[in-house]
Amino acid sequence: MHLFAQIEGELDIAIGKLFELEKDNSLILTASIDFFKKCNIVKTALNAQDDGSKEKAIREAFSDVARVNDLRQIVAHSMFEGHAPDGVEFRRNTAKGALKKEIVAWSEKDCDAHFIKMEQVRRDLHFLVQKIAPYKPSLDFSDPRNSMYLGMF
Q1: Which residues share a beta bridge with 81?
Q2: What does DSSP say about strands 87-95 and 99-106: parallel, antiparallel, or unpaired?
Q3: Closest CA to 41 of 108, 114, 116, 135
Q4: Contacts for 103 with CB less than 8 Å, ≥ 6 apart
Q5: Angle formed at CA 28 by CA 24 and CA 31, multiple of 5 degrees
Q6: Cβ atoms within 10 A of the Cβ of 65, count?
Q7: 85 prior amide bond cis, ω within 30
Q8: Nearest 5°: CA angle at 48, between 31 and 45?
Q9: pLDDT score for 145
Q10: What pLDDT is attached to residue 136?
């Protein structure tokens, strides 16, 4: 859970930078946004600011974030116990249209691989977050996002 919290922390930092929020204001905002909405905000901002050179890195980073979130859900929402000879067994139940019961077993080697992957995802996200620039709204009417303001005049 610690490694996943670090991934979420990178998203929180990006949102704070994007909106130029002071620390406490950033904490208030990010504590009120669920994980995948944070992902969407940061991914959208990165894509909007990208000149095309980081498109693949952005897409891959956020696909990896979604994959490690699946691992987090197994750990956070499943009963678990030791699994011979050197692992852990998770009993996961999900109900999305139908009840699904599954047993997921991870060896010590699997756990190590998952931890390494989460750290890599955090590093990749950190690299992208360093590039995010604050959003500067403007009333440039050539920007279609601002065309709604024309009706006000």
Answers
A1: 89
A2: antiparallel
A3: 135
A4: 89, 90, 91, 92
A5: 130
A6: 25
A7: yes
A8: 10
A9: 60
A10: 80
Residue type, 30: T
The encoded tokens of residue 39 equal 């992902």
Q: Which residues contact 13 (CB under 8 A, 6 or more apart)?
A: 129
**The whole model's pTM is what?**
0.80
User: Of 100, 118, 81, 67, which is closest to residue 90 (Cα–Cα)?
Assistant: 81
Cα separation, 153 vs 151, in Å, equals 6
Collapsing DSSP to helix, strand or coil, 81 comes out as: strand
- Output the pLDDT for position 84: 85
Letter string b/e over residues 5-32, b meaning 16 or more CB atoms within 10 A of that residue's CB = ebbbebbbbbbbbbeebeeeebeeebee
Tens of each residue's pLDDT in the chain, 153 residues? 788 899 999 999 999 999 999 999 999 999 999 999 999 999 999 999 999 999 999 999 999 999 999 999 999 999 999 988 899 999 999 999 999 999 999 999 999 999 999 999 999 999 999 989 998 877 666 666 666 555 555
For the record, the structure tokens of 116 come out as 């390494």
CA 33-144-53 angle, to 5 degrees, is: 70
DSSP at 147: G
